[in-house]
Design brief:
Elements lengths: L1 E5 L9 E4 L9 E11 L1 H8 L10 E2 L3 E8 L11 E4 L9 E5 L4 E2 L6 H21 L7 E4 L5 H12 L3 E6 L2 H9 L4 E4 L4 H8 L4 E6 L5 H6 L1 E9 L12 H6 L3 E4 L9 H16 L9 E4 L3 H9 L7 E4 L1
């Protein structure tokens, strides 16, 4: 089969599209022919060597995608021809992927391969952030960092359908427009004095901050109300700056971390959460931006496009 590989960490030019051996199935795995593969920033971090890669060189990156079962390996839960997606299976950047049965999520007829590969990882992230890390309630005020990014766009919509007011933070006017179009009540640019603007609107602070940058943590804490919460689920800024920790104590602010893998604990849990996500999409409560598509053989260009920070929707690799 063909796969997008790398043998050493580095920039996008380390990526190679080449022939590799087909997966060898374990007893609890099915073989899936990939139709669409989701590219995520974590894949950049793995390519750079910041996050570890599974297996041995030549390494195959990627954890998200959707396709068709071509060998059910005598597992009765799935049959050949079934359409499935997944958010947490390694070696996804390939034509064929060995998918553990417990990680396979059946796709409803109205959810396309591209939609599943566009939304499963980021959508399930938005789902647990708003139901587990912090249970968003009607009337709350929510601040979302990187609001025009993949998770940010979904967080805006989920928080709105749960009845919250939404403030978004973005890096450009075009991304501000995207955030507003999805329902954000207020959107500020990082280049503005956004902390002051938020406190002018909400002098007591916001109920929860969804913080995915890290280097903005000090300001996030400063705009959080007494007994409010900051949910840290990313470090796009490459560092964490807490500022004066006494403010956390004085205002009884809770800081919690978030990682999707800690919530996808079983096949039943994956399917239950995915069904809620698919339900929101099928009922038009969530709008999924049209993805940017690259051939799997164009992996370098796709990585470069993601790193350029110009994308506002999902990037898909198509075998």
């Amino acid at each position: 089969m063909k796969a997008l590989t790398l043998s050493t960490p580095g920039k996008s030019d380390v990526l190679e599209y080449k022939d590799v051996a087909d997966p060898i199935l374990k007893s609890d795995e099915i073989l899936v022919k990939m139709e669409a593969i989701g590219l995520n920033f974590a894949d950049i971090m793995r390519r750079n060597g910041v996050y570890p890669l599974r297996g041995h060189a030549p390494y195959i990156n990627g954890y998200e995608g959707a396709g068709v079962v071509v060998d059910n390996n005598n597992n009765k839960m799935f049959k050949v021809g079934d359409r499935i997606g997944f958010a947490d299976v390694p070696f996804a950047n390939a034509e064929l992927v060995a998918v553990p049965v417990a990680h396979a999520i059946p796709l409803p007829a109205d959810i396309s391969f591209e939609t599943a590969a566009s939304v499963l990882l980021q959508g399930l992230t938005a789902q647990y952030l708003t139901s587990d890390s912090h249970q968003v309630k009607p009337g709350e005020t929510v601040l979302i960092h990187a609001a025009a990014g993949g998770v940010g766009q979904l967080l805006i919509q989920v928080c709105r359908l749960l009845g919250a007011r939404v403030i978004g933070l973005t890096s450009s006017e075009s991304k501000r427009d995207v955030s507003r179009s999805l329902g954000a009540d207020h959107v500020f640019l990082y280049s503005e004095d956004w902390k002051t603007k938020i406190l002018e609107l909400f002098p007591n602070g916001v109920d929860v901050v969804y913080e995915s940058v890290g280097s903005t943590m000090k300001e996030s804490i400063e705009v959080t109300r007494i007994c409010g919460q900051v949910v840290l689920f990313g470090l796009a800024g490459d560092k964490l700056e807490l500022g004066n920790p006494l403010l956390i104590i004085a205002n009884s602010i809770t800081i919690t971390g978030g990682d999707l893998w800690n919530y996808l604990t079983s096949g039943e849990e994956r399917i239950k959460r995915a069904q809620q996500l698919f339900g929101w999409i099928s009922s038009n409560q969530l709008t999924i931006a049209d993805p940017a598509r690259f051939k799997l053989s164009e992996g370098k260009q796709a990585h470069d496009f993601l790193e350029s920070r110009k994308s506002t929707g999902k990037i898909l690799l198509i075998p």
